[in-house]
Write a structure and sequence with these properties.
heterodimer, A: mainly alpha, Fumarate Reductase Cytochrome B subunit, two-stranded antiparallel ribbon, 69% helix, B: alpha+beta, Sulfite Oxidase, Chain A, domain 2
């Protein structure tokens, strides 16, 4: 028993932990200010309650959005470079098969998904974390397409023009927010994953 | 009064316990303060330190955008069939309050670092070589509309009046009390036009009679209407919306 207590496994490397929390802070600002910008001229027939937004008015929201974009993009580049160069992505997110994702998601919905070893992601987690990365890339590209439809018109054209780039930007945000909500719910359901994202270590349970 | 009660009730307890209670209270207050600040983004934005950080980032974004600005990159042009009809009216006042400028008495004033400051009448301006463009007007609010504008290439006009094109800024003052300013690189862009016509008609009052500077490489609010005078300067002139917090460069 005492020997087992002393057994810690390293789950999250320092770079992943630091970029995770900077990202969490950055996403909060980008989403809340983005909602205020959306409200200035909604693409869809609804508005987002102003209480949930950041910036106070359009100019304030734009200031937040275009300040935090640097934080989130630089942080994202650090994370992606580390993930690719160190082999972190290859080890943690792959292999990934549709069958495994389907099976693990079903198990998770039934509340039966095992979380014994926090250093190994199940297929549902792998799919979600990969989807978040893809969402972020689409958000940055569609964001550039809206911000610079003349200077970066090649990106805008790839996304079907200025107006459709706005729709892509919104939908990628919606998907990202959905994944983040599921992610936070999962952390609440398996609370011991939370300190692990701060300290990087988890107690081996076996 | 409240404090005294607390002191009395804490009397007799060990200093260690009091310290730990104080610490807990402090942490609790700290957390609720943080949560409050995040919840009310409005108040957070009003904070002085946050304000200067955001303003500093906006200045940085001015620099980043002028670095990103390619003087040879043209805004996409569209066929006549793509024109948005009716073209939206937009200003800091309603359509009923549009300023009416008398074309007969009108004279465009030139000031600052310009060699020939002789004012220009409308017939003189109409007599200059004209060109047209069908481009997308993008509003800072997010919406966009395609329109057709015709007028003088602004770089040609600046060369004609002997403007110092090594200066940093060109500022505009308008009949509706609007004012704004742009960088020289954008002023010299081949698609920046001093326009007198919209959709092949004389510019109607609601779109800026007698003239509007059309800049397809900038957001809509950087395209001044009802221009009465312009000046070339090395001192930052600001603008109506820019002074309230909108990004100055606002390139697209």
């Amino acid at each position: 028993m005492e020997a087992a207590q002393a057994q810690w496994v390293k789950v999250h490397p320092l770079v992943v932990r630091v970029t995770h929390w900077i990202n969490a802070f950055g996403i909060l600002i980008m989403v809340a200010s983005g909602w205020r910008i959306y409200n200035a001229s909604p693409v869809f027939p609804f508005r987002i309650p102003n209480e949930l937004t950041l910036g106070g008015w359009l100019a304030g929201a734009l200031q937040w959005h275009f300040a935090a974009m640097w934080l989130i993009v630089i942080n994202g580049i650090v994370y992606l470079t580390y993930g690719i160069v160190s082999g972190h992505f290859r080890r943690k997110l792959f292999p990934l098969t549709p069958g495994a994702v389907f099976r693990d998601t079903l198990q998770a919905l039934r509340g039966k998904l095992a979380h014994e070893d926090l250093s190994v992601y199940n297929a549902a987690q792998r799919a979600a974390y990969l989807a978040i990365i893809l969402c972020a890339i689409v958000l940055v590209l569609s964001g550039l397409a809206i911000w610079k439809p003349v200077q970066l018109q090649e990106i805008t054209a790839t996304l079907g023009g200025y107006e459709s780039a706005r729709v892509v930007h919104f939908l990628a945000m919606a998907l990202l927010v959905l994944i983040v909500v599921v992610h936070v719910v999962m952390v609440i359901l398996v609370p011991r994953t939370f300190p692990t994202m701060i300290t990087g270590r988890a107690r081996r349970t076996s | 009064m409240k404090k005294r009660t607390m002191e009395t009730s804490l009397a007799g307890h060990s200093p260690g316990l009091i310290r730990s209670i104080e610490r807990r209270l402090f942490l609790k207050q700290g957390f609720s303060l943080g949560a409050l600040a995040l919840l009310s983004g409005c108040e957070l934005t009003d904070d002085e330190g946050v304000q200067s950080l955001l303003k500093g980032m906006s200045r940085w974004n001015d620099r980043a955008q002028s670095w990103l600005f390619n003087p040879n990159k043209l805004a996409p042009e569209y066929p006549e069939s793509a024109i948005t009809r009716p073209f939206p009216f937009n200003a800091f006042y309603s359509e009923e309050e549009v300023t009416l400028v008398d074309g007969k008495d009108y004279k465009l004033e030139l000031e600052g670092l310009i060699r020939e400051k002789k004012p220009w009448t409308l017939p003189e301006l109409y007599g200059l070589p004209q060109t047209s463009q069908i481009t997308r007007h993008i509003c800072v609010e997010g919406w966009s509309a395609i329109g057709k504008w015709s007028g003088v290439r602004f770089s040609d006009f600046l060369a004609r009046v002997g403007a110092d094109t090594s200066a940093k800024y060109i500022g505009f003052t308008c009949a509706d009390d609007y004012y704004t300013s742009i960088d020289m690189a954008t002023a010299l862009h081949p698609q920046t036009l001093l326009t007198f016509r919209f959709a092949d008609q004389v510019l109607p009052p609601k779109y800026g009679f007698p003239m509007k500077l059309r800049i397809p490489t900038k957001l809509g609010f950087k395209n001044p209407k009802h221009i009465m005078s312009m000046f070339v300067s090395n001192e930052y002139p600001g603008g109506y919306w820019e002074d309230q917090g909108y990004n100055w460069f606002s390139g697209s």
